[in-house]
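Page 42, continued from yesterday. The earlier attempt failed because a stray header line got pasted into the input along with the sequence. Redoing it now with the clean sequence only.
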Amino acid sequence: DDDIRAVVVTGAGDAFCAGADLTPAAETFASPTGGGEFTSSPVRPRAWEVRKPVLAAMNGHAIGIGLTLAMQCDLRFVAIGAKYGFVHVRRGVIPDAHSHWTVPRAVGFANAADLLLTGRHVTAEEAVAMGLANRALPAAEVLPAALELARDIAANTAPLSVAISKRLLWASPALSADEVDRLETAMHRHVMGEADAREGVLAFIERREPSWSLSPTKDWPSEW
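This time it went through. Structure tokens are written below.
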């Protein structure tokens, strides 16, 4: 839906997501049934596959899959006083939702090993210091701050440019410098000279909000 320019995910109540429901006690992580239907990353599409920024407004505790799913987002705002942790190894299972890929990308190998292999809790302030989150705020300010940034993105950034940049950003760690250069050059050729490249400059010079026209769906690069 091209009318949606940014996505903000938040939690209901005081927590962002408390993780697995432990009501079944010893059977909480029973063997999956149904043959090939089980997956450790059940949410589709994954946030990094969405062609617009996805912000996690983590208004309270984020534990287990509550944190691993947030790691699939582009930006994370966390609440001061809340607990954050990949606690899976303390429950006899392992981190999920692509966290062995997303977490090292965000915080580096040493910090990822610290977080994933110990299952310890971290504070909002430590999460920001490690690169696990972007901003730490009082809980009541987390969602308003995320919405404010989402609105700024919606008003001031070109949707196709953001979608392409996001795709490159998530792909870049697996690419060589030459491959990134090739793709950046190809994508520059895709957007330069087009309506949004003209509108962005004119809006800046004329000191007004831009009116974007290119679509992340209709004008998406054919090679992707």
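Notes: The radius of gyration is 19 Å.
Reminder to self: strip header lines before submitting.
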